[in-house]
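Pilot study result, target chain (257 residues):
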Amino acid sequence: MKAIWTGSIGFGLVNIPIKLFTATESSSLDFDMLDKKDLSNIRFKRVNETTQKEVEYANIVKGYMLNGKYVVLDDADFKKASPEKSSHIEIMQFVKESEIGSMYFESPYYVAPEKNGTRAYVLLREALAKAGKVGLGTFVMRSKEHVCMIMAMGDALVLNRLRFPQEIRKTTELELPSTKSKPEEIKMAVSLIDQLTKPFNPKLFKDEYSEKLLKVIQAKAKGKAVPFKPLKVVHSKSKDLMEQLQASLSASKRKAS
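Predicted structure:
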């Protein structure tokens, strides 16, 4: 794997030189955009708005509009804004992971130590695991500041990029129901939840859509017809929630037996 960020993690006076690696990859199929007429690839060009000529990537710079004029910035300028956060993650506090809502989680990265940071890396990993805590800090990556959470996961440290509170939209713009459920309905719904509760096993979930889509592609390449049955959503005949819950509980019991 290729490192996407290099720097260090600090907690107290302990400093750990580290590298970040992308921890996830897409499971979806990679499609090319083609011209319907002759199936030629569609190319997207970076074009100068004034001359209409294509611009090489090496000749493209970043600019910020200020008082009607562009101020051009280079990599050094971005680092000048916050040199410490551009190459260092200072853990500001430790919390229990359960205190952080799932809405805040954005992207996970694997953290690996540089050769001279092995002992300190192991120390932080083992201390986090024993304390049952995660570390919170901030850092700059790709010209943007991020909140991050550092946690121990097996032999590795994992950094999860978190969203800022202002990046999470409020629910006040939604039309949400204000009615309440009946106590007996809640009781039966909880019974259904308890009946379907199992330990989390990520291996039970996989990208079946991509697998089936690949079979469609392979069949079409061989000139075979692919059968298609549109999904028909069948609603319960009964509008009574108690009846629906009772039927759900009965069906769940039959599957379990």
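One observation from the pilot: Residues 183-256 form one domain. A full batch analysis is planned for the follow-on phase.
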